[in-house]
Amino acid sequence: MSRGVSHAAYKPVGVLLGLAAGAVAGTVFRQVWKVTAGDGEAPSATDEDRGWGEILAAAALQGAIFAVVRAAVDRGGAVGVRRLTGRWPR
């Protein structure tokens, strides 16, 4: 398979993996927030009953979890493509 075809074939897979990563990251974040904050729900940026510290901590935790899950899913997808095609997607 040529490099262009391999890249084109991986593109839709990458999009689906990205959507799955977002869903998984959201679930992981909600569970981690429940355990660490003892709260049922993480604060939103416009929640007037929560302070700046709690809102920024929640946003930082959510961003970190999303980045780690996304990197793991992207890397796993690339490894899978290499196993199937013998080429690393670009």
Write the layout of secondary structure elements.
Elements: H1 3-37, H2 52-85
Helix pairs in contact: 1-2
| Distance between the first and last residues' Cα | 13 Å
By DSSP (H or I, 4+ residues per run), the number of helices equals: 2
Form type: elongated
Helical/strand content category: mainly alpha
Q: What percentage of the residues does DSSP assign to strands (E)?
A: under 5%
Largest sheet: none
- Unreliable residue runs: none
**What is the subunit arrangement here?**
single chain
Write a brief caption for the model:
This protein has 90 residues and is mainly alpha-helical. The chain has helices at 3-37, 52-85.
Structural commentary:
By secondary structure, this protein is mainly α. Helices cover 77% and strands 0% of the residues. It is built from two helices and no strands. It is elongated.
What attributes characterize this protein structure?
2 helices
